[in-house]
Amino acid sequence: MMNPPDNVQYDRNNSAKLPAWQQTGKVIRVFLTLLSIISLLCGRTAGAIDYPKADEHVLFFPALAWQSDGQSDGQSGGQSDGQAGEPSGWTVELHGWIFEPNLFSDLLEPLRLVLSLPEPVVDTTVDADSQQLWEQRGHWFTVDNERGKRLAVRLGNDVYTLPASRPNGHFSGVIELSAEPPAQFAVETAAHDSRRFTGELLAIPPTGLSIVSDIDDTIKISQVLDTSELLRNTFLRPYRAVPGMADLYQHWQARGAVFHYVSASPWQLYRPLRDFMDEAGYPLGSFQLRYFRWKDQTAVIFLQDSSAHKTAALETLLSRYPQRQFLLIGDAGEHDPEIYGALARRFPEQVKAILIRALAGADLSTIRWKQAFAGLPASLWHLFSDPAELPDNLLND
Q: What is the pLDDT of residues 34-50, one digit of tens each?
């Protein structure tokens, strides 16, 4: 047996001992080796980006940008591959969804049963057109959500890496820019991939007028007070616009207003809703919908009162644009009057007007309005059935 070097003490009752610096080096080498193995097993290295695979799709929701102060480090939820440390002028919040479409319509059957929707073979009112609408809209609830995907997006000349997608396939990130952002951005795809997944970006100035609009029974006939009719109108029938509302919104847009659509509908219905709104002539705006996933608590939360969702979304919006004026428009079917009244009491300098569309079967009692709008000027809120009834001077200073 070879004798150990003079600088190493050897204990025949134990194992050979290395000098302290060599022991530390050995630990580091083992640690780095383990990291390398983990990286290989995961198929990626720390900070790597994912390109959408051939069977994966990316859907972006309209992004918001607002002017900000301070310095940008390019790392606020989205890592920049461009120059960091430049002055920050705009904050951009991106939100998207990566998923693999489901090609098997048999997965729609459990969804139909859960929603208690009629089956075509036993209900002659569900014709071929209704069945086609059901398949088009229902398939959004059966897609395979892709978790753990780190996508990169290009804004202008810079590329930013977004945080990994969550179990529901949704991802989001906040990015600081030194200049006004472009109106569009796109996901970075592999060199051989000719697809383009683009998103729209709304750079909203710090002052001006914002229209916050509900969707169901405010701009789209849904019949929320009748669950059976609500489900049929949501999944089996062509969407119908509330008469006169698109013209009203276009008029407001022409006068410089921007739009924010806040609804209790799930994100799975974004694409059908967006297609309907584009066709009906409603202006482009941001969307705040609700998360729904079969496999977690969001499925239970979704069945609960949506007031908390709307309240949180609106408080964030008004806080983000503290110098803007807001016109809030909803309907009497559920809790819009109460939500908007509470918001006006909290942000009295920002809420310019509250408009509530009357619905047959809704509580239109005087006592409800007194409670919902307690402490607010009577001139602040308006109840209407036809948009033509609304005052012409609503948008005046």
A: 544 443 343 344 468 99
